[in-house]
Design a protein that fits this description.
The chain is α+β, with helices and mostly antiparallel strands and 652 residues long. It contains eleven helices and 35 strands. Helix 6 packs antiparallel against helix 8 and helix 7 crosses helix 8. The longest helix has 15 residues.
Length: 652
């Protein structure tokens, strides 16, 4: 009975603030809001949005049509860690002709019934660059338990900038609402992203609501209302793609404009039209027609190679070594492959279009692929949004098998895309036929293999060898780490992970041969420092998982590893007669459904004083969806708990 009463009270507490209220009165604070000490649905929250709203409408000022949006926020600050929610930054776009502006900023801090109003001299404007400036202010007189209210109006002449609404941020919200009144002259595509559902999704028509002086006729308006309640904070977790892909928000994109005289202009297009446009684009199509220029520079040994795959690899290495990437993407502007080739420095567009041209020059079937990198979000598939793309790679097809190539990275082998490119899919721009979508499937050979062979000496010290082999992306990461480091640096890096290990000798193989695994061999000595004639040895060394990266009870968005991976440990120990193994990890075998992940641990103690341990933690696909989260978390829990159990050796 007591539990039922608590649930009823919780339900009353959560809903007593809004009671389906969809409007506000500035300066009106309730006793419930003043006395609120923590949020029942998230007791760890440092701050809580009690109510927020945005209201956009189209209007005409002295010279043109503007979008006027009124914003309102009411936020409870539970403690000092929530004070960062009291700093506001309003970005404003401008160019030589037009500029956005912010007006009527009203802001007040409530401490019980005392009010502190934001003064005008506490509002600052800063120039960010030649396209953006920011209006900034921080609320005054902040205390634990303060409630802040902020409202302002943003006026924008840029009709593309019906920016929509972000329902979810890094703090929870009790109620969030966005309204818009859009004249029928403006047709917008709209997209709701994220995993949360709308409480309100309404669309009605208001007649004769919009008129431009000097033009005959009135337009009807679509009146939109979107709202959510009890919105959880968005929590970033390890192994996550760009958070903008998953935050719950509504986004608008101008598709078409219809004027009162019957004329209209379309802003969205078809891929067929984009293909035709790119054919003659000076940064894309024109640059892709330069294969004859590259033909004269290709070394004779590449041209004379009769094996197409080996020829493609040679071309890739040639372009990779010729260019230095200037760390710029620049795929739709500033692309000049001839100039870049002469200077041996280029952006992504210049380097990879040069790669495509050179592959064509030696008779191979090469195409350009448009990508959006991981930190840029997923590109829209419904219709072309060219601004969604920010990267170019090459696709070469040999004997009905294709390879995806990016020559910007000196340490990436043939067919291994940089991690930033592993973002689901791309658009292949086949200018002879129609462009098409292509899934980006990462290489499946990324392994770290650790081979350890130790001998326990009668005096309690250990001596032996440790061999670490990295393949695929693990090799690329390790090569990036060891680049420009001496052997002494790498010995210190290894020894600093442990208290008692001394590296007697160190070798590294295939440091510069990027087509082979990178191999490191450590000859090690472990001193016996245990005075109780016991020794605790962990056989996983540097491959030990210390904490589970998956901590949430539930996860709404996918776990994105980027690529499949496998961590393998093969350990053997020779034990003298004067020592016994007192305990060691138990064998275990945990397999996820469809074999998407596996943790195996096999331990064996032989009568001839030999102990072996073989372990593997395999992640066999790059992306796990929310319904697969709990088994994945369980898999890591098993791996961590097993890896924490040491081998306990006791002297007779």
């Amino acid at each position: 009975m007591k539990k039922i009463a608590i649930l009823i009270l919780l339900h009353f507490t959560i809903n007593s603030f809004s009671q389906n209220k969809t409007d506000y009165q500035f300066g009106e604070i309730s006793n419930e809001e003043i006395n609120l000490k923590k949020y029942a649905l998230d007791t760890t929250a440092n701050a809580l949005v009690l109510f927020e709203s945005g209201n956009s409408n189209f209007d005409f000022n002295d010279k043109n049509i503007i979008i006027r949006t009124k914003y309102y926020y009411k936020i409870k600050l539970f403690n000092k860690e929530g004070f960062n929610q009291a700093t506001f930054s309003i970005p404003l776009q401008y160019n030589k002709k037009d500029s956005e502006s912010v007006k009527d900023i009203n802001a007040v801090t409530h401490n019980n019934l005392n009010k502190t109003i934001l003064a005008k001299d506490q509002i600052f404007t800063e120039n960010v660059n030649d396209r953006w400036k920011e209006v900034k202010f921080t609320m005054p007189n902040l205390k634990e338990g303060s409630i802040i209210e902020v409202e302002y109006t943003l006026e924008s002449p840029f009709k593309f900038n019906l920016t929509g609404w972000e329902f979810q941020t890094d703090i929870p919200k009790m109620f969030s609402q966005y309204k818009a009144s859009i004249p029928g002259n403006y047709v917008y595509n709209r997209k709701l992203s994220g995993y949360l559902k709308l409480k309100t999704n309404l669309s009605t028509t208001k007649t004769n609501c919009f008129h431009v002086p000097a033009y005959a006729g009135y337009a009807n308006c679509e009146e939109l209302t979107y709202a959510m309640e009890n919105i959880p904070a968005f929590v970033e977790e390890d192994y996550m793609n760009n958070k903008e892909n998953f935050i719950s928000k509504i986004k608008f994109e101008l598709a078409e404009f219809k004027w009162f005289d019957g004329s209209h202009e379309k802003y969205t297009t078809t891929w067929k039209a984009v293909d035709q446009e790119f054919k003659t684009d000076k940064n894309i199509g024109i640059q892709l027609k330069k294969s004859k220029y590259f033909e004269e520079f290709i070394p004779l040994e590449i041209k004379s190679n009769t094996n197409d795959l080996e020829k493609a690899k040679a071309v890739y290495t040639y372009i990779q070594n010729h260019f230095t990437w200037n760390k710029k993407y620049s795929i739709f502007n500033d692309v000049n492959v001839k100039e870049a080739f002469e200077n041996k420095v280029g952006n992504v567009g210049e380097i990879n279009i040069s790669l495509i041209n050179t592959l064509k020059a030696v008779g191979l079937n090469a195409e350009m692929v448009l990508l959006s990198t991981r930190n840029n979000g997923f590109p829209t598939k419904i219709h072309p949004v060219i601004s969604d793309f920010n990267y170019i790679i090459a696709k070469v097809t040999i004997n009905d098998k294709f390879y995806l190539l990016d020559a910007t990275e000196k340490l990436a082998p043939f067919g291994l895309l940089p991690f930033r490119c592993l973002n689901g899919y791309g658009r292949v721009m086949d200018f002879e036929n129609e462009s098409y979508w292509l899934d980006i499937i990462p290489e499946n050979d990324s392994k770290t293999r650790l081979y350890v062979a130790l001998t326990l000496n009668p005096d309690g010290s250990f001596k032996g060898k440790l061999r670490r082999v990295n393949d695929g992306y693990n090799a690329l990461l390790r090569r990036e780490f060891v680049l420009n480091k001496s052997n002494n640096d790498l010995i210190l890096e290894f020894e600093n992970q442990f208290n008692t290990i001394e590296v007697l000798n160190y070798q590294i193989e295939n440091r510069d041969d990027i087509d082979k695994p990178i191999v490191e061999i450590y000859e090690i000595f472990i001193e016996n420092i245990d005075k109780a004639n016991k020794f605790y040895l962990n056989p996983f060394f540097g491959e030990l998982l210390k904490n589970n990266p998956f901590k949430q009870e539930n996860r709404l968005y996918p776990v994105d590893f980027g690529y499949p991976k496998n961590f393998i440990v093969n350990f053997s120990l020779e034990i003298p007669d004067n020592y016994n193994i007192e305990s060691y990890p138990e064998s275990k075998n945990i397999v996820l459904e469809k074999g998407d992940g596996r943790f195996t641990l096999i331990t064996k103690k032989s009568e001839n004083h030999t102990f072996t341990l073989n372990s593997s933690l395999a992640i066999n696909k790059p992306v796990f969806y929310n319904f697969e989260y709990e088994p994945l978390k369980m898999l890591f829990n098993h791996a961590i708990s097993s890896q924490k159990v040491p081998i306990v050796l006791k002297k007779n």
